[in-house]
Write a structure and sequence with these properties.
Layout (H helix, E strand, L loop, with lengths): L13 E5 L6 H14 L3 E5 L7 H8 L18
Parallel strand pairs: 1-2
Length: 79
């Protein structure tokens, strides 16, 4: 697709999900399904109550080729 300025425009698909219980294996499976079905370029998952298992979640949920970052929450107010 070309814009009126002659530059190429690319559609970016963004998914944002306020998740609960990401330490649960079923929830992790739901995130994997979301990644496959949405074919999104950017996925943002907010989970304020995960502390201990965040490193494991990233490696289990996000397949090879995905880069993920974590911002720790401050209390219950989020990151």
């Amino acid at each position: 697709m070309r814009s009126s300025w002659g530059t190429n425009l690319h559609m970016t698909k963004l998914v944002s999900w306020n998740a609960r219980g990401l330490c649960n294996l079923d929830a992790q499976g739901s995130v994997k399904s979301l990644l496959k079905l949405s074919k999104a370029n950017v996925v943002m998952i907010q989970e304020t109550k995960v502390r201990d298992c965040i490193d494991g979640i990233g490696s289990l949920v996000f397949p090879n080729g995905w880069r993920w970052e974590c911002v720790p929450s401050m209390g219950l107010s989020g990151g």
